[in-house]
Amino acid sequence: MKPFKIRDIEINPPLILSPMAGVTDYTFRRLIKRRGGVGLVVSEFISVEGLTRHNPKSKRQMHFDEEERPFAVQIFGGRPERMAMGAEMAEEVGADILDVNCGCPAPKVVKNGGGSGLLREPAILETILKEIKKSISIPLTLKLRTGYTDASINVVDVAKMAEQCGVEHIQVHGRTREQGYKGLANWDLIRQVKEAVSIPVSGNGDITTLEYGFQKWRESGVNGILIGRGAMQNPWIFRQFDDVLNAREPYQPDVEEKKAVLLEFFGMCLEEMPELPALGKMKQLAGQFTKGLPGGAQFRQTLYHSHSVQEILDNITSYFATLAERRVYGDGLVESEADLEITSCESGMGAKG
User: Which end of the chain is less enclosed by CB atoms within 10 A, N or C?
Assistant: First the structure.
């Protein structure tokens, strides 16, 4: 498990923040990058229809800082000429890599021929990849699901075609579009893709613990690992993976640091956006971040009903003060029988990345 290259761009460590719609924006990416251990960050997926029509939101989604490099812009759409134009725009803003989304299962994306809908139309996807390849000089990469339906799994064939089109890195989420985020990701199919092409392949799906991540990494032989929702639950997960790769004890943040990260994120949100969306972003992260923490379920309920900056700050201060006072066991995640019950229920609902 060592660094790999996408053309001349080294992905070191070989750990990638998986793109997530409504999550991996400018603020969240920097929060994760500052915790360490991330080899590549990727934008939210961006509509080329919005980009090429100069939609302010779409253009804003391409904004990034130098500290984020290497940085990939991910675009989606179903029209080859628009995809090529969007790719050019990404290169113009300074992106290191252009990534094509062929995995999003959202009906509104699929309906317009984008995301995982392209798995039903490999000929159109091939045209898109060829048109983009002619339009940009930066590396072209592709994010795939395993197929559109469980009965039409075609990820290996699509990956081979993509390699022939000049794609330089393939990322596979081990679920079909039909699955959405249900069930377990199929890492055997990810392994088959790795064995079928000569370009780097990275795997994605269910990586929320170090043990599971390293197990799937070994079994599939992939070059890299993508982590999505696992990074919302644990912003230090990349650093912990990197620690193990370098024969160090995995870093364990204390309660004060966990509080500090939430406050740092909230502060960055308030700098970047109006108060209302900043409150929404904070609730979104805190909802994942406090899963498994003692009293986390009650804290989330309180937070969801907070309607001002001061209310949220007061609730965070109060919750973490209580957390610091409590006697915790082991890794500090579970204390009482009630918390064990809460954690057990919530872990079954874990979001997929």
Answer: N
* Residue 86 CA to its chain's centroid (Å): 21
Catalytic status, residue 165: no
Q: What's the CA gap between 148 and 150, in Å, rounded?
A: 7
Domain boundaries, the chain: 4-245, 255-347
Cα 266 to Cα 288: distance, rounded to the nearest angstrom: 14
Report the alpha-carbon distance of residue 80 to residue 3 in Å, rounded: 32
3-class DSSP assignment, residue 300: helix
Q: Are 353 and 42 in contact (CB under 8 A)?
A: no
Are the C-beta atoms of 114 and 101 separated by less than 8 Å? Answer: yes
Min mean pLDDT across 16-20, 198-202, 343-347 is at: 343-347
Type of residue at 160 = K
Per residue in 153-204, pLDDT (tens digit) is: 999 999 999 999 999 999 999 999 999 889 999 999 999 999 999 999 999 9
Helix/strand/coil for 253: coil
CB atoms within 10 A of CB 85: 19
Helix (H, G, I), strand (E, B) or coil at 299: helix
On whether the CB atoms of residues 128 and 117 are closer than 8 A, the answer is no
Q: What is the pLDDT of residue 352?
A: 42
Are the CB atoms for 93 and 62 separated by under 8 Å? Answer: yes
pLDDT in tens, 62-103: 999 999 999 999 999 999 999 999 999 999 999 999 999 998
- Find the mean pLDDT for residues 255-281: 92
Instruction: Note the CATH architecture for domain 4-245.
Output: Alpha-Beta Barrel (3.20)
- The identity of residue 101, as a single letter, is N
Catalytic residue among 102, 104, 165, 269: 104
Spatial separation of the C-alpha atoms in residues 180 and 113, rounded to whole Å: 17
| Structure tokens given for 324 | 């610091």
